[in-house]
């Protein structure tokens, strides 16, 4: 078993072909999303200004929630699809199936938790808490 014999060939069809294209498209999208994230969080703003209030102000707009949600979804799906391909290449039988099921479940659980946090975060409650009013949360 050699580690590499050149570029991975295009699968003939079905889910593997979709996953092959997804890895290329999501990788390109992630490049731009991650560079944008790094630019806004670390170059445009100093680390002194990035705190809870900064995130609450960012999440007051649907654009940043969607941006971060898309970054989260693509990163998780891209990474776990890569893990699926590695398991497919190096494991066989029950081990491969177990790794793929556990990875799929973990990917789904992390995505649901992350998207729940991104889209249910309440910046108004966060602003009230930082102003010293703990009575705004149920």
Protein topology:
Elements: H1 14-44, H2 52-58, H3 62-90, H4 93-120, H5 123-130
Verbal overview:
The chain has one domain (14-129): 3 helical TM bundles of succinate and fumarate reductases. α1 crosses α3. It has helices at residues 14-44, 52-58, 62-90, 93-120, 123-130. With 138 residues, it is mainly alpha-helical. It is elongated. The chain contains five helices and no strands. The longest helix has 31 residues, at 14-44. Helix content is 75%, strand content 0%. The model has no long low-confidence stretch (mean pLDDT 87).
A few lines on this structure:
By secondary structure, the chain is mainly alpha-helical. 75% of the residues lie in helices and 0% in strands. Helix 1 (14-44) crosses helix 3 (62-90) and helix 2 packs antiparallel against helix 5 (123-130).
Task: Label this structure with key terms.
138 residues, 3 helical TM bundles of succinate and fumarate reductases, 0% strand, mainly alpha
Please count the beta strands (DSSP E, at least 2 residues each).
Answer: 0
Report the CATH architecture: Up-down Bundle
How large is the share of residues in beta strands?
under 5%
The multimeric state of the shown protein is: single chain
End-to-end distance? 58 Å
Helix content: over 70%
- Structural class, judged by helices and strands? mainly alpha
The rough form would be described as: elongated
User: What's the mean pLDDT score?
Assistant: 87
| Total helical segments | 5
- Examine the coordinates and then state which fold CATH places here, giving the name of the CATH topology: 3 helical TM bundles of succinate and fumarate reductases
Tell me the series of helices and strands, N- to C-terminal. HHHHH
Low-pLDDT runs: none
Output the CATH class name. Answer: Mainly Alpha
How many domains? The number is: 1
CA-atom Rg in angstroms: 20 Å
Largest sheet: none
């Amino acid at each position: 078993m050699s580690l590499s014999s050149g570029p991975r060939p295009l699968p003939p069809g079905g889910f593997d072909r979709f996953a092959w294209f997804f890895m290329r498209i999501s990788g390109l999208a992630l490049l731009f999303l991650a560079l944008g994230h790094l630019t806004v969080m670390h170059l445009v703003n100093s680390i002194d200004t990035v705190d809870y209030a900064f995130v609450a102000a960012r999440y007051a707009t649907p654009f940043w929630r969607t941006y971060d949600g898309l970054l989260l979804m693509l990163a998780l799906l891209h990474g776990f699809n890569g893990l699926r391909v590695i398991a497919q290449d190096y494991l066989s039988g029950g081990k491969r199936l177990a790794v793929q099921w556990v990875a799929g479940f973990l990917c789904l659980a992390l995505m649901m938790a992350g998207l729940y946090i991104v889209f249910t975060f309440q910046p108004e409650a966060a602003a009230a808490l930082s102003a010293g009013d703990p009575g705004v949360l149920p």
